[in-house]
From TrEMBL, chain A:
Keywords: Heme, Iron, Lyase, Metal-binding, Oxidoreductase, Peroxidase, Signal. Its main location: other. Residues 55-213 form the Dyp-type peroxidase N-terminal domain. Involved in the recovery of exogenous heme iron. Extracts iron from heme while preserving the protoporphyrin ring intact. It is found in: Cell envelope. It catalyses: heme b + 2 H(+) = protoporphyrin IX + Fe(2+). Its cofactor is heme b. NCBIfam families: Dyp_perox_fam (TIGR01413), tat_substr_1 (TIGR01412). This is Deferrochelatase. One of its GO terms (biological process) is iron import into cell. Binds 1 heme b (iron(II)-protoporphyrin IX) group non-covalently per subunit. Signal peptide: none annotated. GO terms for molecular function: ferrochelatase activity; heme binding; metal ion binding; peroxidase activity.
From TrEMBL, chain B:
PROSITE patterns: PROKAR_LIPOPROTEIN (PS51257). Residues 138-370 form the Imelysin-like domain. Its main location: periplasm. Residues 19-112 form the EfeO-type cupredoxin-like domain. Residues 1-21 form the signal peptide. It comes from the Bacteria. This is Iron uptake system protein EfeO. It comes from Actinomadura syzygii. It is found in: Periplasm. Pfam families: Cupredoxin_1, Peptidase_M75. InterPro entries: Cupredoxin, EfeM/EfeO_iron_uptake, EfeO_Cupredoxin, Imelysin-like, Imelysin-like_EfeO/Algp7, Imelysin_sf, Iron_uptake_EfeM/EfeO.
Length: 411, 376
């Protein structure tokens, strides 16, 4: 990375000034509510600043719940798309501050449907973050440059290759625009996506979406890694939200990376990974632990005592998941993981329709996810999982005062 | 920007005045003749206390330090209208349709619902603001309803003749066209609660005890397509015609208002498409859903066309969005045309249905804002 390393203080400082900008901007309406929520509901109810050099929802302490949605743009009108992105930005700024959209959910014109759908009334901000990303098809679809941005497609925004074992469903893959909504209250996350989808009618249509009920990653140093549905802690060596050196090297896109408008942004890879829960549950404890390369109780690497003890890869089976995914097996490649467990009822054959909605942020998918996923071709875990949905998105830098989502791209 | 009301624009401006320069308010609605209201943390000054009934714009300026809320209270203390989140140093235009009477205008610093107030007296009668264009639109729409109902009756007569002759092929051919007029004006028919269930009930919607009384188009649809015979079903045809004639006899006494019956009706027509036609539930046996689909859209389009001059003036962006929305739905429907009608809906695949559903949502959302634009 050629630009000056941001260092702890820069991100911290900007984070705080970002907060004060939001507070300043919000002074007109609902600030009292934010403050109220802050004092009364404790940490889980807080508002996360919307403005800043980076989008929130990446290096933000991982919230408990997810609602992810991928949209197709249904218009070819660039102005209309930009108008919607501005409307989305306004709505996102309001909702992340714990305020309703537009003129609110009640008290408006009686013969008009309310601007806000209302199900989050009275709920605290719940650390809601909304993170937007642009998929390859926004830049070019079926050979067509719909919005005059084909030339601005970042080199790092590659179409993901086919990985062995992939069984991707088109109706659960791709999308021109993605929005990741994370919050500590599922109703707040769902409210956010629902209202954005509503504002977007006529410009975008939901292509696919996914609810996640439990986080499987932590970016908070020293925190225990939450267990996935296999009962294991996976992804212990995540990038910490406080580690600006690692964030700068592996997560944030830089000015010299080949796409100026992405500087300060990041690339999101989303994968819907179905877990074969029932067969896994019949697998012996020893085999389960061999497959991951960790013990199930503590999460310690093979031969170690604690989750965060340094793993000795050579002690693990050659096809152990941790061994293959570890940076040392991938030329130092690292990604910031932010995945969630999902269960969408059952699949009609009496099996849980469940798994991991994997989300990773990185500076360049070619040296991040693609590199690591290629190594996982021989992963022993593959017998129990299947990738059924996929998307890759360029998440632009954060919104600055006076700006809007994607302004560096559409300027 | 999204076709929000002038109120919403003002509200947004308070939140993010400089967040989005492109979205500053094109706020012209309330400027002329607005009643100034000045709120501070402990006062509420109103520029005029003798008001005339009808649409009234209050320009509420918050000169205090707390977020304020402006309420119009009825004599019994209940809220007639309120505007929340008026930030310090900001000003909003708030439109209320005032009936005659005495009201309290209350400014609540800190939005507690309590605060200083002023009494105002409203005289006169609140009406449609005397917009002759709306009165004409309503009259034209009523004439349209009469014509469409006549069309449905004429075509239903031919359909019933075929049913009575047990000419299944002919009856199948005439079934969908006989419904077009009806589907175009359905919300008006639904104003008379008793007719709609008699002529247009689907078997799946009936309670068990209602099944013996089932009648109307869908009974004949099932007999034609599922049983392949309408032998002995002539009485249902006669009843269908009699019910439609009853509806016709009631139309002269009917008044249709531009906001609820027209704009609201247009929204209902699109709701019909979104919940019944896109899913293929309406015509479960004949699969002629796209014929109904088109008729619903045509009915909504007619209403919009009649209201359009007013909409263009009051919310130009909404008019643009609606023009685009209708054009897109109509273009998509064209893809499925076959002969004089449409392809059978059971041959329309998942991707095409998704495309239709997206277009219906894209039109339905701005259409839901038509009533407010007309009422403004």
């Amino acid at each position: 990375m050629t630009e000056a390393r941001p260092g702890l203080s820069r991100r911290r400082m900007l984070g705080f000034s970002g907060a004060s900008l939001v507070v300043g901007a919000a002074a007109g309406a609902g600030l009292d509510r934010v403050a109220f929520a802050d004092e009364d509901k404790g940490g889980a109810g807080r508002a996360v600043p919307f403005l800043g050099p980076h989008q929130a929802g990446i290096a933000t302490p991982v919230q408990d719940r997810l609602h992810f949605a991928a949209f197709d743009v249904t218009t070819g009108d660039r102005e209309r798309l930009v108008r919607m992105l501005k409307e989305w930005t306004q709505a996102a700024a309001a909702m992340t501050a714990g305020r309703p959209v537009g003129d609110g959910a009640v008290g408006g014109v009686a013969v008009a449907p309310p601007d806000d759908t209302g199900e989050a009334l009275g709920l605290p901000p719940s650390r809601l973050t909304l993170t937007i990303g642009f998929g390859p098809s926004l830049f070019e679809k079926d050979g067509e440059d719909r919005f005059g941005i084909k030339a601005r497609r970042p080199p790092a925004l590659v179409d993901l290759p086919h990985f062995p074992g992939d069984a991707l469903e088109p109706a659960r893959s791709g999308g021109d625009i993605a929005v990741q909504a994370c919050a500590d209250d599922p109703q707040v996350a769902v409210h956010a996506i629902r209202n954005l989808a509503r504002i977007g009618f006529g410009v975008v249509a939901v292509r696919w979406s996914q609810l996640g009920f439990g986080k499987t990653s932590s970016t908070t140093p020293g925190a225990q890694t939450p267990r996935n549905l296999f009962g294991f802690k996976d992804g212990t060596e995540n990038i910490a939200e406080t580690d600006d050196e690692l964030l700068g090297r592996h997560v944030w896109a830089g000015k010299g990376d080949g796409s100026d408008w992405m500087a300060g942004g990041s690339y999101m890879v989303a994968r819907r990974i179905r877990m074969h829960i029932e067969t896994w549950d019949r697998t012996s404890l020893r085999e389960q632990e061999d497959i991951f390369g960790r013990d199930k109780g503590e999460g310690a690497p093979v031969g170690a005592r604690k989750e965060r003890d340094a793993p000795v890869l050579a002690k693990m089976k050659p096809d152990a998941h941790v061994r293959l995914a570890h940076p040392d097996s991938n030329g130092g490649a690292r990604i910031l993981r932010r995945g969630y467990s999902f269960t969408d009822g059952s699949d009609g054959l009496g099996r849980l329709e469940a798994g991991l909605f994997f989300i990773a942020f990185q500076r360049d998918p070619r040296t991040g996810f693609i590199r690591v996923q290629s190594s996982l071709a021989t992963d022993a875990l593959n017998e129990y999982i299947q990738h059924v949905g996929s998307g890759v998105f360029a998440c632009p830098p954060g919104v600055q005062k006076g700006g809007f989502w994607g302004d560096t791209l559409f300027a | 920007m999204r076709p929000v009301s002038a109120l919403a624009v003002a509200g947004v401006a308070a939140v993010s005045m400089s967040l989005l320069t492109a979205c500053g308010g094109d706020d012209d609605a309330g400027a002329a003749g607005a009643i100034p209201v000045t709120a501070t943390d402990d006062s509420c000054e109103v520029g005029k206390t003798e008001l005339t009934a009808g649409k009234t714009t209050f320009k509420v300026t918050n000169k205090g330090s707390k977020v304020n809320e402006f309420e119009v209270l009825k004599p019994d203390g209940k809220i007639l209208a309120e505007r929340e989140n008026i930030g310090p140093g900001t000003s909003v235009d708030f439109v209320v349709n005032l009936p005659a009477g005495t009201f309290k205008l209350l400014c609540s610093a800190g939005q507690t619902g309590k605060g200083p107030s002023k009494d105002v007296t409203v005289t006169g009668t609140a009406g449609e603001g005397g917009d002759q264009r709306l009165a004409k639109a309503a009259a034209d729409y009523k004439a349209f309803v009469v014509v469409r109902l006549d069309d449905t009756i004429t075509k239903t007569k031919a359909f019933v003749d075929a049913v009575k002759a047990n000419d299944v092929a002919k009856a199948k051919e005439l079934y969908a066209p006989s419904r077009v007029g009806w589907e175009t004006i359905e919300p008006v028919a639904e104003k008379f609660g008793d007719i709609d269930p008699k002529v247009d009930a689907r078997e799946a919607d009936l309670k068990p005890e209602e099944k013996k009384d089932w009648s109307g188009w869908h009974l004949l649809e099932k007999a034609l397509w599922k049983d392949g015979s309408v032998k002995g079903k002539g009485k249902y045809g006669d009843q269908l015609l009699a019910d439609l004639e009853t509806l016709k006899s009631r139309l002269p006494g009917l008044t249709l208002d531009p906001v609820n019956d027209m704009a609201g009706g247009a929204k209902e027509l699109l709701d019909e498409v979104a919940t019944g036609k896109v899913t293929g539930e309406e015509e479960a046996f004949s699969h002629t859903d796209l014929v109904d689909f088109k008729a619903n859209v045509d009915g909504a389009k007619k209403i919009y066309d009649l209201l359009k001059p007013v909409v263009q003036e009051r919310d130009a962006q909404l008019a643009t969005d609606l023009d685009g929305g209708f054009a897109k739905v109509e273009a998509l429907l064209k893809k499925h045309e076959k002969g004089d009608g449409y392809v059978s809906y059971d041959t329309v695949g998942k991707d095409d249905r998704k495309e239709l559903a997206d277009a219906v949502n894209a039109l339905g959302e701005p259409l839901s804002k038509l009533a407010a634009a007309v009422a403004r």
